User: Fold HAD family hydrolase from Aquimarina celericrescens.
Amino acid sequence: MNEFLIFDMDDTIFETKSIGEEPVKPILDKFEHLLIHRFGTELAKEIVAKLWKYPFDVIADTYKFDEYQNSEFARLVNENEYNLKVQPFEDFNLVKNLKQEKVLVTTGFSKLQNAKIQHLGLEKEFNKIYIDDILDPKRIFKKGIFKNILLDKNIKPEFVYIVGDNPHSELKAGFELGLNTIQVAKFGQKRSEYANYYISNFKELIPILAVK
Ligand SMILES: [Mg+2]
Assistant:
């Protein structure tokens, strides 16, 4: 029972898309107005369409958003009130019953991520929750957070399991740090080269954790 589990949240514990458009639409509508000044009507519309599909930092990088655009977006995210109707995947109940120490490490905007955590009732399920805030100027990314956890807890990498869906985020970071990586493919995603294990249901965690 020495295993230490680090979970991702979006598309690992619940389906991110299930939030729906309504709670975040006011942010993107206002942001589109702001983008028009720099990019014009057509391109602003195109950028906002991409913001619906891809993470903010990826789009900010592609279109070279400046400090003003980044900080205004953060302001809109922080001012918005989130009334979310979200639920964990059904098999998350199995995770609740695992006896191992569990922490949550999630990337996004703090206020929105906190709203998800609260509406999903996750505070009581994890020993600690870390948010990798996209707009934090001192951002250390998930990899930095994982490293700090290893140091703080003084645990050997072989006992740490990263459970998540994103090959470019937690799975890559965990793999590079020599941690065990478990890819959760709820939607039939293809297996990542950074995944030591590949599951679609949390019941598959039990035999994996029973190995050691
Ligand atoms: Mg995810």
